[in-house]
Design a protein that fits this description.
- The chain has helices spanning 2-13, 19-36, 148-153, 165-172; strands at residues 48-50, 55-60, 72-79, 82-88, 92-98, 100-105, 108-113, 117-120, 127-133, 140-147, 159-162.
- By secondary structure, the protein is an alpha+beta fold.
- Strands 1-2-3-10-5-8 form a six-stranded antiparallel sheet. A five-stranded antiparallel sheet has the order 7-6-9-4-11, with no helix packed on it.
- It binds fe (ii) ion (FE2).
- Fe (ii) ion is lined by residues 86, 88, 129.
């Protein structure tokens, strides 16, 4: 009796599609995104959000599913004073759109300004980093380009070691 019940439960919860069929469907959906997805990610469609790491505006990322190139994560970061601090694997590039500031990368200060490209290297234990604006008159803004394939292959994991002060203040309201 008990054995029969287990069998029934298994049948009820069995997925409608096999893994093989789901793979075919996923490939089709990805191909469709590349054929028909929107090509321009407009500023007006990308809301800036205050997160534990700071003020981020995501152009391409996990929640955006109507564009081609589903394996890229692209976002801007507006830094008014300091970002949060976190550690994750490198292998990504950051282009400074405006302003000037610096990052502390594994304890070492690196300065940057508008037009510069900042690289986070691939290292055995990832890279701890925090970003600072150096101009009290205006925020610094940079954009990061992260390839999801690479992040997955190197088993990157984000560890927040310090929460953005702005975010902390907004949580306390
Ligand atoms: Fe980061």
């Amino acid at each position: 009796m008990a054995e029969r019940e287990r069998t029934r439960v298994r049948e009820k919860n069995a997925p409608a599609l096999s893994n093989y069929e789901m793979a075919i469907q996923r490939h089709r959906e990805n191909a469709e995104r590349n054929r028909t997805g929107r090509i321009v990610c407009r500023l007006a469609d990308c809301e800036q959000v205050l997160t534990r790491q700071g003020r981020l505006r995501t152009y391409l990322g996990l929640t955006i599913q109507d564009t081609p190139l589903q394996d890229w994560i692209v976002f801007t970061h507006e830094i008014r004073t300091a970002s949060g601090k976190h550690r994750h694997q490198g292998g990504l590039v950051i282009y400074v759109i405006d302003g000037n500031g610096y990052s502390i990368v594994d304890g070492e200060r690196v300065d940057w300004e508008k037009g510069d490209l900042v690289l986070l290297p691939l290292q055995e234990k990832g890279v701890e980093h925090q970003h600072f604006n150096a101009n009290p008159e205006k925020p610094a803004v940079w954009i990061a380009f992260i390839n999801k394939f690479l992040q997955d292959y190197v088993a990157s994991e984000i560890t927040q070691t310090e929460v953005s002060a702005e975010y902390k203040a907004s949580e306390e309201k």
